[in-house]
């Protein structure tokens, strides 16, 4: 008996310094994945550093409050460097646990009414020794430069969004045989792989949405069809197809053939009303393209949505391709995918604006690109910890008020962030016979950081980040056709 007690004492985990509440409650869920006390300490210190205000650099030296050059040699900086680069914890196990926490929380549980947004982001990086670095097109900079590109997946509905997964793109020159190397994967193949991972992780979604880089690629669309998932992808305005002479062969020609004259004489255009978070609404017009390879009874449909069918302005015109069947069509009867109206197709693609409006901003605030490591393993770990910090903001929304805020939360004030151009409707549930419900997201958030005695600066900032994040959310009102005048 004494030997058994001695063994328990020997194997008892060493206590580590606790993080601020409720961050401590969040990170405790990851402790079983971290076998050493210095790993558990590193996780807490890293996340708390990432959650500090954006004025604080999220480099390794910045996270431990040391000087950029001399401070890098201090023990506390070296300790965090070891945690990120050399320690033996599993980044994919952390990924799995992070998603598990999101799925079981009513506030963030994904449903088949949301979308899986595929996007890519590039960060400028100097030198040639960092994993995945190369001279390549950096989409967020809009030019070719030396940097690192990652392909990401994001779950979103009209109330909540968060990162699901990511994969770095490795340029061909890193491989012995270049693009012919069996290990080389294009960004398009990485996108399909991320969708496959989401399906394998049982993350429900109504459709995959992405911009025209993915929508114009036949391999991406075939890969999504092979996975039996719906998609709403953008097409280029110049998109065309093979056609007989004098037949319609492009999206612009199809738009002109719809016989728009005026709002009172719209031809084949259908009027929609899109409602936004600030209570404003905007009239749009949608057209189902029925020509060439597209139509309600074809494998793919094309929808054009715009504020002005006459001029088709670039900033307010969507050209969308989808495999979701049209209501009442023969395909709708045979397909496992639930039919989608014109309104829903436009709404689903509108949710992609989460990437543009908020996700990149918060990624930068949390230091996505500010890593000071070179290895593939360390970079992936840094990104995963940024995703954990982001996910904690939502955890704080549903748990933090109980522990740190006295009294009810107040309505949030304007944060200075532009309102999202994302309409919302509640229609649509993934595949047939697959419904989903979720807890309602809070309609009010703190208008300022809470100041309770148990709240540290990092957790205060998590509240501020979430306030800014939700300020860009669309409303939960449905986009429905407006009656013609």
Which structural class best describes the helix and strand composition?
Answer: alpha+beta
Q: pLDDT below 50 for ≥5 consecutive residues: which ranges?
A: 402-429, 439-456, 470-485
Query: How confident is the prediction overall: mean pLDDT?
Result: 80
Oligomer: single chain
Describe the largest sheet.
Answer: 11 strands, mixed
Individual helix count:
15
Distance between the termini: 86 Å
User: For the CA atoms, what is the radius of gyration?
Assistant: 24 Å
Shape: elongated
Please estimate the helix content. 25-40%
Descriptive notes:
This protein has 485 residues and is of the alpha+beta class. The protein has helices at 2-11, 23-27, 37-50, 60-63, 75-85, 91-104, 187-200, 212-215, 218-226, 251-256, 330-334, 342-350, 353-365, 376-404, 457-471, and strands spanning 115-124, 134-138, 143-156, 161-169, 207-210, 231-234, 270-275, 281-289, 301-306, 317-322, 480-481. Strands 1, 2, 3, 4, 5, 6, 7, 8, 9, 10 and 11 form an 11-stranded mixed sheet that branches. Strand 2 (134-138) and strand 3 (143-156) form a beta hairpin.
Lay out the secondary structure.
Layout lengths: L1 H10 L11 H5 L9 H14 L9 H4 L11 H11 L5 H14 L10 E10 L9 E5 L4 E14 L4 E9 L17 H14 L6 E4 L1 H4 L2 H9 L4 E4 L16 H6 L13 E6 L5 E9 L11 E6 L10 E6 L7 H5 L7 H9 L2 H13 L10 H29 L52 H15 L8 E2 L4
Parallel strand pairs: 1-5, 5-6
Antiparallel strand pairs: 1-3, 2-3, 3-4, 6-10, 7-8, 7-11, 8-9, 9-10
Helix pairs in contact: 3-5, 3-14, 6-14, 7-9, 14-15
């Amino acid at each position: 008996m004494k030997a058994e007690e001695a063994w328990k004492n020997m194997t008892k985990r060493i206590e580590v310094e606790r993080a601020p509440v409720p961050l401590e409650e969040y990170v405790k869920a990851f402790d079983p994945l971290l076998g050493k006390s210095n790993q558990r300490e590193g996780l807490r210190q890293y996340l708390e550093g990432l959650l500090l205000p954006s004025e604080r650099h999220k480099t390794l030296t910045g996270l431990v409050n040391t000087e950029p050059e001399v401070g890098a040699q201090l023990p506390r900086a070296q300790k965090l460097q070891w945690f990120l680069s050399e320690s033996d914890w599993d980044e994919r196990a952390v990924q799995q646990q992070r998603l598990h926490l999101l799925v079981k929380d009513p506030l963030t549980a994904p449903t088949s009414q949301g979308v899986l947004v595929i996007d890519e982001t590039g960060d400028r990086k100097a030198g040639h020794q960092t994993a995945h670095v190369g001279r390549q097109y950096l989409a967020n900079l809009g030019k070719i430069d030396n940097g690192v590109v990652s392909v990401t997946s994001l779950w979103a509905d009209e109330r909540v969004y968060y990162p699901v997964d990511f994969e770095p793109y490795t340029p061909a020159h890193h491989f012995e045989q270049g693009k012919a190397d069996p290990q080389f994967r294009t960004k398009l193949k990485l996108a399909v792989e991320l969708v496959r991972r989401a399906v394998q992780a049982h993350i429900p979604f109504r459709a995959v949405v992405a911009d025209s880089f993915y929508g114009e690629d036949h391999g991406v669309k075939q890969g999504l069809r092979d996975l039996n998932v719906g998609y709403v992808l953008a097409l280029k305005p110049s998109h065309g197809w093979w056609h007989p002479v004098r037949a319609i062969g492009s999206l612009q020609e199809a738009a002109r053939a719809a016989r728009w004259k005026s709002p009172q004489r719209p031809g084949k255009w259908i009027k929609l009303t899109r409602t936004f978070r600030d209570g404003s609404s905007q009239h749009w017009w949608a057209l189902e393209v029925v020509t060439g390879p597209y139509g309600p009874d074809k494998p793919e449909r094309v929808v054009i949505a715009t504020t002005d069918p006459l001029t088709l302005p670039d900033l307010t015109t969507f050209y969308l391709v989808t495999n979701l069947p049209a209501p009442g069509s023969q395909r709708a009867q045979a397909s496992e995918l639930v039919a989608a109206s014109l309104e829903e197709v436009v709404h689903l693609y509108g949710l992609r604006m989460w990437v543009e409006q908020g996700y990149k901003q918060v990624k930068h605030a949390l230091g996505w690109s500010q890593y000071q490591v070179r290895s593939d393993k360390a970079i992936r770990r840094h990104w995963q910890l940024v995703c954990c910090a982001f996910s904690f903001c939502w955890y704080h929304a549903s748990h933090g008020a109980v522990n740190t805020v006295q009294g009810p939360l107040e309505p949030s004030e304007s944060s200075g962030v532009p309102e999202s151009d994302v309409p919302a409707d509640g229609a649509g549930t993934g595949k047939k016979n697959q419904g989903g419900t979720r807890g309602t997201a809070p309609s009010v958030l703190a208008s300022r950081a809470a100041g309770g005695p148990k709240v540290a600066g990092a957790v205060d900032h998590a509240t501020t980040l979430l306030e800014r994040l939700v300020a860009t959310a669309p409303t939960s009102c449905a986009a429905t056709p407006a009656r013609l005048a």
